Amino acid sequence: MVQKQKKVTQTEIVDPICLASRVEDACQDNCSCCCCGEMDVSSVPDDICKVFDDILVDNDDCKRVYVTIGLFTIVRLTRKVELLIPVVDFCIPRNECIQSTDSNPCELFDKLKFPVDEFFPPEKCHFDSIDSVSAGYGCGCGCGN
Hints:
Helix content is 15%, strand content 20%. The chain has four helices and four strands. The protein has helices at residues 46-51, 105-111, 116-119, 130-134; strands spanning 8-13, 17-25, 63-70, 73-78. The strands form two sheets. Strands 1-4 form a two-stranded antiparallel sheet. The protein has a two-stranded antiparallel sheet with strand order 2-3. The chain is elongated and about 65 Å long.
């Protein structure tokens, strides 16, 4: 008999990074961008729109602000299994950099080093403390240092 197991997801997010921003004049007669006329706010998730007390897009204004934000996230999916696997280390996925233009904010984001310490801060026992080791106290975490 197969039992369904409860899955638990956990998401960790580091503070967002502003990669690019610009202000454009939406009232130009020769404007060929998609922002002219009515701005489609349906592409903005409802949960984000609810955070703001005011309207998100004012179609009467001739200025538009565009912001590109980069996020580092780790999503964990955990559930009970019958196999116990000892975790020795974690691996960081390597991303493949793609050639891009100077106006592409993704190029900047691809060059950023993954913030490992934000998700996995160093343990106290990873630091060599000359005073405590020489005194024989160790760091107290059981690693022997």
